[in-house]
Amino acid sequence: MELAVLKHNGEETGRKVSLSDDIFGIEPNDHAIYLDVKQFLANQRQGTHKSKERNEIAGSTKKIKKQKGTGGARAGSIKSPVFRGGGRVFGPRPRNYSFKLNKKLKQVARKSALSYKVKENSLMVLENVSFDAPKTKDYLAFLNGLSLVDKKTLLVLPEDNKNVFLSSRNLPKAKVVSVNDVNTYELLNADNLMLCEGSVSILENLLSK
């Protein structure tokens, strides 16, 4: 499969890049995508939720009334969960939500996401992008040239570029990542995927190992 390499104004450069069918043309595996997205979202959770249990409440442990003969239910200390201000029963505790996935399965998920983008005609290959200084208006002009200002976009760079990253950071629908940080969730979340020309071969090498 071949795609034309586009300039930053959307015009063709006259060059074409070949996309591997083993990466961009597979039959998508929806379950692999589900697991990879589930892991990505689980890893975003802080897991710092915590409520105080009975032994952590500050208060007296003295029995507040005699056991029987009061006409009411028997009761222990003021820290009992049945009283206001008492400890919570089975409350949340800090925990780690992350879980392991096999490398091969994650590769299948990314290949599936890329194949979906090709099927939806929402993948384009661009000349390598770089800015002299971090300016949001420069990135807006870049998106405007491609008619993508109002769409969710993901730009994949061959390597980290601080100026491009900072230029896009204030735009809520624009996302920039290096090719080493590509993940299934962000691939599928974008309406349009933009691969820099230099990113294609690196991405194919990463997903074919």
TrEMBL record:
Pfam family, one: Ribosomal_L4
Gene3D superfamilies named among the record's database cross-references: 3.40.1370.10
GO cellular component, as recorded: ribonucleoprotein complex; ribosome
GO terms assigned for molecular function: rRNA binding; structural constituent of ribosome
Region: Disordered, residue numbers: 45-77
Protein name listed in UniProt: Large ribosomal subunit protein uL4
Biological role stated in the UniProt entry: One of the primary rRNA binding proteins, this protein initially binds near the 5'-end of the 23S rRNA. It is important during the early stages of 50S assembly. It makes multiple contacts with different domains of the 23S rRNA in the assembled 50S subunit and ribosome.
Family statement drawn from the similarity comment of this UniProt entry: Belongs to the universal ribosomal protein uL4 family.
InterPro entries: Ribosomal_uL4, Ribosomal_uL4-like, Ribosomal_uL4_dom_sf
A biological process from GO: translation
Organism classification: Bacteria, Pseudomonadati, Bacteroidota, Cytophagia, Cytophagales
Keywords: Ribonucleoprotein, Ribosomal protein, RNA-binding, rRNA-binding
Superkingdom in the source lineage: Bacteria
Known partners and oligomeric status: Part of the 50S ribosomal subunit.
